Amino acid sequence: MYSPKDYWIELAENFGTADASGFAPILHPNTPVWFNQVIDHLQFNALRRALAIARVEPGARILDVGCGTGRWVRRYHELGLIPVGLDATIGMLRIARAQQTTAPLVAGLAYDLPFPTGVFDFLSDFTVVQHIPYELQANALGEMVRVLRPGGRLILVELIRGRDSHIFPRQAKEWIRAVESCGATLLKYFGHEYLFPDRIFVRFAQILARRRVNFGSQAHSLSSTVEYSTARSLYWILRRTTVFLSALTEPILTRTCRASMATHAVFVFRKTL
Fold this sequence. Notes:
The chain is α/β, with parallel strands linked by helices and 273 residues long.
């Protein structure tokens, strides 16, 4: 049975030393370092836009739920905020500390936050709830709203398309309805990670791979192993171009395309109760 905590424990153990930045266990394991660097850059741009919408001021007390290896906690500190990081996985918190994260780090679950009611001015959740099974998502969102002060801001970044054994996305309107039912009001939301050139290329590569499997090219032999390694290297060489083009067009697409066309959405809420 899938367990979010076990899922992140395994990633921390297997990929905690995969790169110096600590991106691999929290972004895309088994990918080149440059790929996660691009994704992190795009996510940071989205977060800064959300912070501007939320009007978060220096000195605000902020909780980063699912802080992982501490990248947002470190950046919040650099922006003059007072951050606290929470993660269910001790392994992630150890990596965060090794990454020179000096803010308080707390072990705890998103759906059972170990904090009193109304103690934070601002809370961020970057692709955390999407990894929690549907039956626990309402509890997690309710807890996030609970620990905010009245008028406090919540930034939620979650998947709105796609599905996997460890991913439980919702449509944008469903995320909004779920959070507002907990006592918050949507201020604004926008799409994130359109990445059209890269998504087209990946889809094309998946079709080709499926056809090769159908023709029996997946045979377990030395030659097939070498062939797979060569194909994977070529795949990432070509994908570097599509990712670069996607990163160039992302700022324009974010402001001109419907949010539903992106893979993720960024929501900014205000606590009303």
